[in-house]
Amino acid sequence: xxxxxxxxxxxxxxxxxxxxxxxxxxxxxxxxxxxxxxxxxxxxxxxxxxxxxxxxxxxxxxxxxxxxxxxxxxxxxxxxxxxxxxxxxxxxxxxxxxxxxxxxxxxxxxxxxxxxxxxxxxxxxxxxxxxxxxxxxxxxxxxxxxxxxxxxxxxxxxxxxxxxxxxxxxxxxxxxxxxxxx
Length: 182
Prior knowledge:
Layout: H1 3-22, H2 40-47, H3 51-64, E1 68-74, E2 79-85, E3 90-97, E4 100-107, H4 109-114, H5 122-130, E5 138-144, H6 147-176
Antiparallel strand pairs: 1-2, 2-3, 3-4, 4-5
């Protein structure tokens, strides 16, 4: 590895660590225990001034159509999360925190490949592209406190949905092709 490649790798690692520190969990106690999903009033109290941003993202996802919303409780320091999914997999997790929330998206390889030319912040693209992929996809996490982050989340949702549609069309085309010997 050359010195320049080592420096670039170190910069990517620094960016990834910075984003990881920013997203440390602090679960709002007002959302209650595992027994019942959060009430609207408790969610509003936990989110505070970021509630309109939460509502904007939920409305955009609802407008996309074909997606289901479900509250899930994850033990430990993660607490309640609103999971938004299509028929096959999760598209978005909205994770309430005190006075803000985290939007987490599992991105497929095609969506990650589309990020560099998307106009998203360079630091975020570097953090996503260097993140360790999980079985669900490469994680993209944004702490939402204002309209700038809402626009970023909306752009990531659009990229993710476009890549899912493209993958679905590719699967449909491969099923429609005649097989050899038929």
